[in-house]
Design goal:
Shape: globular
Order of helices and strands: HHHHHHHHHHHHHH
Largest sheet: none
Number of strands: 0
């Protein structure tokens, strides 16, 4: 699948946009998105956008179309086959996760549909479970449309930044700058992940894990990582390569 997508991306602009739609469709499709390496492929597509081989806005539109189609088909599958799905042994293995999603959909359907779009394990499950619970279309549709409008650029962004960095002028400074960008990306990811774990531990008032990720350690580890990510971002603004990087990145958004 991944090799086929990469082959499509190298053929022409039309095939590249088709590849974007295919990736976002299967990433959103019920259960399929659980096994598809969609994040890696979205990063590869983002790199093509960052290097100027694909326009951001056509790719965004193609991503939205694939996302909406995958979610609507997933919703229909859940609604049409809710009986067999409830009895399916594969889903019973993930009963704990499914129960959490169903509970969230019953209590906060709009927020669950929006947030679930951005969480890997729940993305291909929320629309299907919404259909299984016979959630009214008037509740599902608006949140789903907003989620599918916001999700593609967020998941393409890391690849876009990488593509812009690759196209930056090759100098001794640019080599250091690329490593610093990578380090900052890791810091931001860790800050977001630890911050989310910290928030969950506060909200549920339980330790999400023992050892380093216990609630007690998260109280200082998460804020420390957030401060480090912010400090790294500010420090990057003073790097000599940053004006060139901002110029190249701006070209992606105005092209």
């Amino acid at each position: 699948m991944e090799v086929w997508i990469q082959h499509l991306m190298t053929q022409s602009l039309q095939w590249a946009l088709f590849a974007v739609a295919v990736v976002t469709f299967f990433e959103s499709l019920a259960l399929v998105g659980l096994v598809l390496p969609g994040t890696v492929m979205m990063a590869s597509l983002g790199a093509l956008i960052g290097s100027g081989k694909i326009g951001l806005y056509p790719a965004w539109a193609a991503g939205c179309a694939g996302c909406l189609l995958g979610d609507w088909i997933s919703f229909y599958i859940g609604w049409r086959f809710k009986g067999p799905l409830h009895r399916w042994k594969y889903l019973q293995k993930h009963r704990k996760l499914l129960d959490k999603i169903e509970h969230a959909l019953n209590d906060h359907s709009v927020a669950t549909i929006l947030i679930g779009r951005f969480v890997g394990p729940t993305r291909p499950l929320v629309p299907m479970l919404a259909g299984m619970l016979e959630l009214p279309v008037k509740k599902f549709l608006p949140a789903n449309i907003v989620g599918c409008l916001l999700w593609p650029p967020v998941y393409l962004l890391p690849g876009i930044l990488a593509g812009v960095a690759i196209d930056a002028p090759h100098t001794a400074q640019s080599s250091d700058f690329k490593w610093l960008l990578l380090a900052e990306a890791v810091l931001i990811w860790l800050a977001a992940w630890l911050g989310w774990r910290w928030f969950r531990s506060i909200r549920k008032k339980i330790a999400p894990a023992s050892g380093l990720l216990s609630a007690k350690n998260l109280r200082w580890l998460a804020p420390l990582m957030i401060v480090a990510a912010v400090a790294g971002f500010v420090a990057l603004q003073f790097h000599p390569m940053m004006p060139d990087f901002r110029h190249l990145l701006w070209r992606v958004f105005i092209a």
